Amino acid sequence: MREIRVEEIVEAVAQLCQEANYYLTSDVQKALQEALVKEESPQGKMALDCILANIQLARHRSMPLCQDTGMAVIFLEIGQEAILRGGIWEEAVNAGVRKGYQEGYLRKSVVKDPLLRENTGDNTPAVIHYQLVSGDRVKITVAPKGFGSENMSALKMLKPAQGVQGVKDFVLQVVKEAGPNPCPPMVIGVGLGGTMEKAAFLAKKALLRPLDQRNPRKDLAELEEDLLVRINDLGLGPQGLGGRVTALGLSIETYPTHIAGLPVAVNINCHVARHKEKIL
Amino acid sequence: MAAQKLTLPLQEEIIEKLAIGDEVLLTGIMYGARDAAHKRMVETLQQGKGLPVALKGQTIYYVGPCPAKPGEIIGSAGPTTSGRMDAYAPTILDLGLKGMIGKGQRSPEVIASMQKNRAVYLGAVGGAGALLAQCIKKAEVVAYPELGPEALWRFQVEDFPVVVIIDAQGNNLYEEGPKVYERRR
After folding, report:
1. Nearest-neighbour CA in chain B from A191: distance (Å)
2. Do residue A237 and residue B181 have CB atoms under 8 angstroms apart?
3. What predicted TM-score, i.e. pTM, was given to this entire model?
4. ipTM score here?
5. Could you tell me the residue ranges of all domains in chain A?
6. Residue B1: what pLDDT?
7. Domain that holds residue B36
């Protein structure tokens, strides 16, 4: 067994919260630079220029890319031979979020209750997904999720007979209805299969995949590419002002499902597609 | 087309000339408010009381900024989704509000109220919070400090970049822009 101290988790989570909010990953930057070359609309180009300048500025000044520094979504892959000393996982992660958001001058955007709506003041609690894996390492992924895009996400339980066409129609419908609201160019995560909550989880997880990586399964890789072309053909463009680049990337994750079902979840992210990971 | 420089508060004759797609750099005073501040303002009006600031002729930026680091004026401050303010916007427009800055769709009720009250809806680039914060030269909370990032702010801005999304005639760039680039199958 390998021991990990609570303080290590707190420090790692705090650091990841800040880095994810200040520094965009290189795959997204590259996709945005390519988008600027492809874009034909003058307002679309202007928006992409602003977005690229914003990335540099945030990096140089260590300030958040977007004022919506999100609800902290945290994926923990915990090796079965790793043991946490000095506390429990949930509290350690939330202590890290508290520290990261306070010390990093990140916005506190979480309310205690969906109906009573009082701000918790420290951006906790995080949404934590735990996965037990082999080995003695722990992988922490912090993915702050803004709600401009989260609010435009959707899930539907299709009939198996609707098949791949039903999936395509639903994804396109969700993106079209989202329009300018999720700050296009978007990044789109699609979860197919499992149960209702599993599909939603897969869609969120799909957002973590680098934009230049396709699903290893050939038919799914082709579906990803086909959907991306169709989404860009909608003409929404950067910020929905009209243009060629509506989405920077689309990833599909799948899971076995029930004989009676075809769950589809579409999780929309903005161009500030944030996630940072660390292995302890 | 190069961006035109305009001074806030927006003059009525200038508002009439603004058309969708126009790129504008704003300089002057604007107010910052989002969900909770709008709810407070409309509740205050419903109680027959006056607002903490006079909004006649003014422009509201839908924003909830990040906290300022020591020595900074403000933290990242990009636009939030305007649609959440749709329930409140017609009431505020009836007070004489002339400009709204945000991102995302507006309801038919808001657009009708804009036409009636001769106001414009301007889009700032969503997700460019660090860049837009550089255009804010002075920031102060003028009411509802207890709402934290959702307080009512007054900003002095310089060359704050926006695009005209919905003009006073009710034309909508979110409708017209994508039509130009849509590829039908």
Report:
1. 25
2. yes
3. 0.95
4. 0.94
5. 2-20+65-145, 148-277
6. 58
7. 4-20+28-179
